[in-house]
Amino acid sequence: MSVADLRFFASELFLIFGRRRNWAGLAVLAAVPVIMGISVKVDGSGGGPGPEFLSAITDNGFFLALAALGVELGLFLPIAVAAISADSVAGEANTGTLRYLLAVPVHRTRLLVVKYAAVVVFAFTATLFVATVGVLLGLALFGGGPVTLLSGSQITLADALLRLVAVCAYLTVGFAALAAIGLFVSTLTEQPIGATIAIVMLCISSFILDSIPQLEWLHPYLLTHWWTAFGDLLRAPVEWSGVRSGLGSAAAYIVIFTTAAWARFAGKDVTS
């Protein structure tokens, strides 16, 4: 990667993380583990029934991060990724800066690669941010110590934190698939809000279809089906079958939709 590419990438990251609305979105994401942790602490009777890992929070604050990720996985994190990816090309076209950006000149393929990479960085940052807030608040409210995995064995808190980073990385790959779809949709329109809605509706539809038993044959091919396989990383030994399937599914979506975005954008007549 050349110096010019690095500067372009840094500029794109600054554009994403320099906007107040994106910081507001990150604040909303961080509010979820805060609300969950305080609610459980005030209730004082334990997590009780609810999202996965919630009942284990009072035993070890580490699980607040996992509970928050489990809750936000269904809507909040996908909305954040959808909004950023939808704005990647459509936002530039909507404000009229896309034509001038290409006139610099910036090769269209390089532009798509940089914008997609920046969205993936944002997805990882947002996921890790939620996990970090959850861990810090959970440990402050409920304490820590050895972590009992889903398989029943215990590991040290340090090892559990490494697994949490792996969980964030795995979820980021899933969100990268969503971002690839978002990038493609963003090349089809000049309205980022409309593109965001379309991407979120697609994600929600995937969750709905995944909950219908009669469509079990379709489930492995759905965008969101393997996202919850992050729990397999919290077993000893790790159950790699679900994780490998999730990575393979995400890779297929990424290849298909980034290629579609490139094919669409390469021949697009940019007039605004």
Structure in words:
This protein has nine helices and two strands; from the N terminus they run H-H-H-H-H-H-E-E-H-H-H. The chain is mainly α and 272 residues long. A two-stranded antiparallel ribbon has the order 1-2. Helix 7 crosses helix 8 (192-210). The mean pLDDT is 88.
Number of strands: 2
Structural class: mainly alpha
Largest sheet at a glance? Answer: 2 strands, antiparallel
| Domain count | 1
Task: Count helical runs.
Answer: 9
Give me the side-by-side strand order of the main sheet: 1-2
SSE order, one letter for each helix or strand? HHHHHHEEHHH
Short structural description:
By secondary structure, the protein is an all-alpha fold. Helices cover 68% and strands 1% of the residues. It has one domain.
